[in-house]
Amino acid sequence: MRIVNVKKVGTKHEMNDFVKFTGRLYAGCPYYVPDLEMDIRDTFNSHKNAGLEFSDIQPFLAYDEEGKTVGRIAGIINHHANAKWQTKNVRFGFIDFIDDLEVSAALLKTVEQWGKEHGMDYIQGPMGIFDFDKEGMLIEDFDKLGSMITIYNYPYYPKHMDTLGYEKEVDWVQVCIEVPKEIPSKYARVTQLSKEMFGLRVKKLTNADVVKHGYGRKVFKLLNTAYAPLFGYTELSDKQVDMYVKRYFPLIDKQMLPVIQNENEEVIGVAITMGSLSHALQKAKGKLFPLGWYHLVRALKWKKEEKAELLLIAVRPDYQGLGVNALFFDDLIPVYNERHFKWAETGPQLEDNVKELTQWKPLHPTLTKRRRCYKKKL
After folding, report:
1. What digits encode the pLDDT tens for the residues 319-360?
2. CA 44 to CA 27: how far, in whole Å?
3. In angstroms, rounded to a whole number, what is the distance separating the alpha carbons of residues 26 and 332?
């Protein structure tokens, strides 16, 4: 029996172990896409992560009897989410471990106990502080390349969860489509009707629109409204919005970010998409310096990947079913062809979000990469 020692991360050296553990665990795995190390560190920094104003987070490391790192996990309590959904949940995230049940059990038991000490009734995960953080343990399609916004894990992970008595809470799937050479006739027809009947139009943002004219905030206000009913979602604060706008909008080619406005110039729909950074992040190996930045800039500006990432798509509830999604596709398909994207993949979509999943039908979608949020009563 392996002796496992789980301890709170409290020193700079321990945080280094926490951040770098996955680099060793997934060394040589062609499907794993690493996070940037600076992003992981910022998650636990109250000066960099506005979500910590209403959340508690505690990272833990598992060491074997020889002092070698064999696993990691973080306990998370999102007080806004618990208040909104009337729950007492502790979340676990950043869970990674070698294929040893003693290790996974010790990590999860530590967060379970940490949650009990804070008055929680259930544990759920993998989840982050916020819904835009990575969430959901991969339970199939382990032989497909991951992405910058999703979790990749080895096939033994869900087997451990089942053995340890964790049950399914929800599943997410991703939608994969081949980019058609022509706009499907249904989208073209619905787009024209939506423009004529509801006064809808596509606006392409400039940097000035995002920063000076407040469109960054308008987009995230829409996301808050559209995603409010979805599992586990808590609305972003203004401080969080400003953080996301500053961090991510400069990276995105604005031609791949159609915003839909009504005749009153209100933002009623948005599709945030970009070229894949998976290969660039693999080459960067989690580091911006000395050469990681070069691989990312090359992917963003010069070398066109074959895959587009459909990161976020949202429509204001009172405009859902009025053809807004057709406007997205009518706008994006020619752009994707210009940039030579052969296929596109969404982020994780809740399996029971029928409205979201059925919009892809004219593009003959494939559902892939199922992920699971587990739960257990404490």
Report:
1. 998 889 999 999 999 999 999 999 999 999 999 988 888 888
2. 24
3. 34
CA distance 113 to 21: 23
How far is residue 171's CA from residue 166's CA, in Å, rounded to a whole number? 14
Note if the pTM is more than 0.90: yes
Amino acid at 326: A
Instruction: Please name which of 147, 143, 145, 140 lies closest in space to residue 312, comparing C-alpha atoms.
Output: 147
How large is the angle between the packed helices 101-117 and 156-163, nearest 10 degrees? 60
CB 180 within 8 A of CB 341: no
What digits encode the pLDDT tens for the residues 163-193?
999 999 999 999 999 999 999 998 999 999 9
Q: Give CA–CA dist 136/236, Å, rounded.
A: 20
What are the C-alpha distances in Å from 154 to residues 115, 145, 291?
26, 12, 28
Q: What is the pLDDT of residue 240?
A: 87
Residue 206: phi, psi to the nearest 5? -105, 170
**Which two three-digit tokens encode residue 188?**
């073209």
Cα distances (angstroms) measured from residue 31 to each of 28, 66, 73, 145, 349: 9, 30, 21, 4, 20
Q: Computed over its alpha carbons, how large is the radius of gyration of the chain?
A: 21
Task: List CB contacts of 11: < 8 A, sequence separation 6 or more.
Answer: none
Alpha helices in the chain (DSSP H): 12-25, 37-43, 79-85, 101-117, 156-163, 185-198, 207-211, 215-227, 238-248, 278-284, 292-297, 324-338, 354-358
In angstroms, the CA 198 to CA 263 distance is 8
What is the band of 211 on the pLDDT scale with cuts at 50, 70, 90?
A: confident
